[in-house]
Amino acid sequence: MGSHRSDQSLSWLGVVRLGLVQTAIGAIVVLTTSTLNRVMVVEYALPAMIPAALVGWHYAIQLSRPRWGFGSDLGRRRTPWIIGGMGVLALGAIAATDAAVIIAGSPVFGAALAIVAFTMIGIGVGAAGTSLLALLASHTAPARRPAAAAITWIMMIFGIAGTAGVAGAFLDPFSAQRLALVATGVAGAAFLLATVAIWGVERARVVAQEEEAGPCPRFTAVLREIWAEPMARRFTIFVFVSMLAYSAQDLILEPYAGFVFEMTPGQSTQLAGVQHGGVLIGMILVGLFGARFGDPRRLWMQRWTIAGCVGSAAAIAALAFSSQVGVGWPLAANVFVLGFANGVFAVAAIGSMMGLAGAGQARREGVRMGVWGAAQAVAFGLGGFLGAAGVDALRSLLAQDQLAFALVFAAEAALFIGAAFLALRLDASRASAPAPIGDLEGARS
């Protein structure tokens, strides 16, 4: 019995609307992982390990991403999972803000509330983010995937940057009441934005009668099925290694600028801005070239992924060498190139991920995206910790700041080279997703 499938796919307007959901996710996440981190450490004089442990916990909770993806696969519609995840994320952010205020005066109750709140944040990011990526992957035409990846990630970065700027302006002069109002406002506005943006993009899917009549698969069986697919397994390992390298310099770049190049806090913050500018330009470049020249059958995204990994390795190796040169090194240009290569790698890898999500023997976009999202979350949490811990240990052992940073940067460069070799085994020509099911808003571009 034939199925009624539609060849309709997301218009550019539909892609932008999904990007607005990413903007909303980024807005809430930066509030909880950056603003609250600073408030706990500076305003409430708590040990830095407390917010660091909570952020690490929210990454650990995202190991549940495959389960959320499985649920959205079974539900045939991903919109309820996205809206539900955003609701949990918003409530978790508000609860985390309350916990940050309470924990200084009532450590036990505040810590318990913080653990619950960051659990909700991890669940919300996992459910909404995984379902959103699965929807984007299954309903974006192959030729548009690089540009779609660039658009959604750039919009997430703007959400992070915009929220940081606006929230920072409204938090001064600081008070617990202001913090609560700002957090509630950001969380509420982000939830409303995501709901309005996603509403009506995905309509009811038309599913084949044989699919409707089939037995409901078990999650563990589906997970084993996907892990048995060589391409899915290879891509999971690639995501973990590449994101480990990508995140390992996050917490040590600014300290490096201070210790070795004697930069002030303001100067090192500006340096981070230069890096993010490079990331944006790299993402835009890949998106534009992908929309104009991209052809998944010619391994286009795979080649850009490899180029981004090699470029990142070269830029980080240059940072390692710069420790021996010191102040005369063009550090800003070096960091810009690193950001540019990171942006190229990130968007190309996400474009490949969108293509591979629909590959395989069955439609399991949600579970595949969940597996890769879990690998990314673990790598992000572990990479930042290992980079910082490695520098601390080597500085103590060697008593030489320059050499300690150089060795850690060299290890990161080696990881990126390893990721490039792993990417060579990712055959993007197999990544053409099955035709999307159902009707979408704005199918005509």
Characteristic key phrases:
445 residues; mainly alpha; globular; disordered N terminus
CA-CA gap between termini:
31 Å
Question: What is the CATH class?
Answer: Mainly Alpha
Number of helices: 16
Taking pLDDT < 50 over at least 5 consecutive residues as the criterion, the unreliable ranges are 1-7, 204-213, 428-445
CATH superfamily: MFS general substrate transporter like domains
How many domain units?
Answer: 1
Average pLDDT reading:
83
The fraction of residues assigned to DSSP E strands is under 5%
Q: Which series of helices and strands comes N to C?
A: HHHHHHHHHHHHHHHH
Helix content percent band: over 70%
Topology:
Blueprint: H1 12-43, H2 49-61, H3 65-75, H4 79-105, H5 107-138, H6 145-171, H7 176-198, H8 209-213, H9 219-227, H10 230-248, H11 253-261, H12 265-293, H13 300-325, H14 331-357, H15 365-398, H16 401-423
Helix pairs in contact: 1-2, 1-4, 1-5, 1-6, 1-7, 2-5, 2-15, 3-5, 3-15, 4-5, 4-7, 5-14, 5-15, 6-7, 6-12, 6-14, 10-14, 10-15, 10-16, 11-12, 12-14, 13-14, 13-16, 14-15, 15-16
Task: Please give a structural write-up.
The chain is mainly α. The chain has a single domain, classed as MFS general substrate transporter like domains (Growth Hormone, Chain: A). The protein has 16 helices and no strands. It has helices spanning 12-43, 49-61, 65-75, 79-105, 107-138, 145-171, 176-198, 209-213, 219-227, 230-248, 253-261, 265-293, 300-325, 331-357, 365-398, 401-423. Helix 4 (79-105) runs antiparallel to helix 7 (176-198) and helix 10 packs antiparallel against helix 14 (331-357). The chain is globular, with a radius of gyration of 22 Å. Residues 1-7, 204-213 and 428-445 have low confidence and may be disordered.
